[in-house]
């Protein structure tokens, strides 16, 4: 009589493993995001980037002592993948940090690049313009000793911070990341992950469904989702163990909007699934962040902590019986 239960456990275990096996592509295939995007700081904000900078954190599990590499796909701004306005004239600087403050610094976890957001030890910095060598190709940071990152007890691992900032020009740099054990290939770091407190990206082409996975810690009683320049060209619905598609507000052109949503105890320690359904086939660049009732930003994880959340209507009904 326990067999169905065991089968369910095996099934769930399989789901979790397959989810982790996709590993450290950033964005992750499960999010269905085409590219990260950072514009040059002379660009119009109406193109979809409010502050011309984006910070990502890479998490290496505590037990891992092997060197890791952070790889950047198409770091240049020119040729394929990127968004041109007149001629290519944009420079993007990628700066890698570790050490004390890289993540624990208060400004490092804010959804905008202000104050001492670069806190930590600068490990390596590289700027790119329009460079055929890095067009549709990878640039690799590393080898990195995981101990050079900052230990983050909450996530039980060492964290590196990578800041992409548009230094000049008015074009959009589209790029992706991969946390790898290899300098020349994309080989996932077992149990690795990546997260950000402000997500600037391009929606996948077509009428697509995108998933963002903000992680809700035990202190959260409500969240505020904020989004910029969605051009009213999508719907947003929030799913979780307790939410079955709560509608969230959608911004227009070149504007921020936000909506607040209560969080219940059974959502603690899990991820939300914010689903963005685009309405047209136009390409769309935009920005997201989520804060709690203290205005503290919550991290979006590439691989959702606790697995992709599912509304548990059926489970609830069965338990009540
Ligand atoms: Ca230009
Ligand atoms: Ca390119
Ligand atoms: Ca690029
Ligand atoms: Ca837009």
Overview of the structural elements:
By secondary structure, this protein is mainly beta. It has one domain (23-320). Helices cover 9% and strands 40% of the residues. The protein contains 2 helices and 22 strands. The chain has helices at residues 3-22, 313-320; strands at 25-26, 33-39, 53-61, 68-73, 91-98, 121-128, 138-144, 150-152, 157-168, 172-180, 193-196, 199-203, 209-212, 215-216, 222-228, 234-239, 244-248, 256-262, 270-271, 273-278, 285-292, 300-301. The strands form 4 sheets. Strands 1, 2, 4, 7, 10, 12, 15, 18 and 21 form a 9-stranded antiparallel beta sheet that branches. Strands 3, 5, 6, 8, 9, 11 and 22 form a 7-stranded antiparallel beta sheet that branches. A hairpin with a 4-residue loop joins strand 16 and strand 17 (244-248). It is globular, with a radius of gyration of 19 Å. The two termini are 18 Å apart. One calcium ion (CA) binds at residues 74, 76-77, 81-82, 173-175. Residues 1-23 form the signal peptide.
